[in-house]
Amino acid sequence: MLRSLLLLVVLSAATAFAQETDQPMPTPVHPGPDLRDLMHSRNMAMGGAYMSMGYGAEVIGGNPAALAAYKRYQIEASGAWDVPNGMGFGTLGLADSTNQIAGGISYHFVTFGGLERRWAHVTTMALAYSLADWIHLGVAARHHVIVGASNTNSITMNAGVLIRPASFLSIGVSGHNLINNFNKDITRFFVASVSALILGQLTPCFDLRADFNEATPRFAYQGGLEWLIAMSFPVRIGYQFDGIMNHQYLSGGIGWFTEGSGVDIAYRHELGGAEGRLISLTVKIQLGQ
C-alpha cells in the first residue's frame, strides 16, 4: 500500500512538471527608454543622430570633441517624458568654448525602467582641445548614481575625435562608458557619425552606434534632417533603428532661435516594441562668443 502511494505521488509530480514545462515561457517585458536616450530636443527630433554636430550643450554627454567646434558660451535646459513607459528626465548644461580649451558640465535627473524602476543622477564634465581648425579632441568624465532595481555609484568616461575637412562637413568617432562599471544601464558602445550643412539651410546627419558587449556585435542606425526656414525656424525629421535594444522610432520637431538662443520641441514615436511616445522641450540661451 505504501509503495503504491509513493508511486502515485512520484507519477503525479512528474506529470505536473511535464505540464508546467510544456507551457510557453512568458514573453519578457520589452525594455523602454534608458540612459542612452538623454538627448536634447533637436537631437531627439533628428533620430538621435547628433554626435558630429557641436552647436548645442548636448555634446557634453555625446562626443566631447564637438565642444571645440563652435565658439560660444551657452546654457541649455531640457526635459522629456515618455508617457506610456513612465520614463522622464530633466537636464541642465553649460558649455564654454570661448577659450583655447573648451569645457562643459551637465546634470541629468532621470526616472526610467518600468516595473524595474530606477532613479539616476548623471553628472558629466567635458574638455575639448583643437589641434587645428579642422581637428578637435575631447574627453569627458561621467558620474552615475543609480538607485532602485539596479544600483551603482560609479565613474566612467567618454572620449572622441571630430574632424572637419571642410567648413560644411563634420566627421566624428567617439567611445562611451569606456570604464567598465559592470552595470546593465552603463554599457560600453562606440559611435561613428557624419553631418553636413548644405546651402546654409539643410543639415543631414547620420550616426552608427556599435555595441560589442555580446558575442555577436549589435548596431543601431540613426539619421535625421534639419531644414532651417528664414534662418530662424528649424523643421526636423528623423528615424532610428536600434538593433541593440530592439527599438524603431520616427521623430520630428520644430524650433525657433535667434543669435543662438531659442526653443526646440520634439516628438518621438516608437513603432511597436514598448510603444513609446516621447515629448521633449529644450530652452537654450547663448550669452556671446
- Unreliable stretches: 1-29
Count up the domains.
1
Total number of strands: 14
Q: What class do helices, strands and sheet pairing give?
A: mainly beta
CATH class: Mainly Beta
CATH architecture field: Beta Barrel
The total of helices stands at 2
* Beta-strand content bin: over 45%
The CATH topology turns out to be Porin
Radius of gyration: 23 Å
CATH superfamily: Outer membrane protein transport protein (OMPP1/FadL/TodX)
Mean pLDDT: 89
Q: In which order are the strands of the major sheet placed?
A: 1-2-3-4-5-6-7-8-9-10-11-12-13-14
What is the approximate shape?
globular
Largest sheet: 14 strands, antiparallel, barrel
Keywords:
mainly beta; 14 strands; 14-stranded antiparallel barrel; 55% strand; disordered N terminus; single chain; globular; Porin; 289 residues
What can you see in these coordinates?
The chain is mainly beta. It has a single domain (35-288), classed as Beta Barrel (Porin). 9% of the residues lie in helices and 55% in strands. It is built from two helices and 14 strands; from the N terminus they run ααββββββββββββββ. The chain has helices at residues 2-22, 41-45; strands at 73-82, 87-96, 101-112, 118-132, 135-148, 152-166, 169-176, 189-196, 202-211, 218-229, 233-242, 247-258, 261-270, 277-288. Strands 1-2-3-4-5-6-7-8-9-10-11-12-13-14 form a 14-stranded antiparallel beta barrel. The longest helix is centred in the first third of the chain and has 21 residues, at 2-22. The radius of gyration is 23 Å and the shape is globular. The chain starts with a helix and ends with a strand. Residues 1-29 have low confidence and may be disordered.
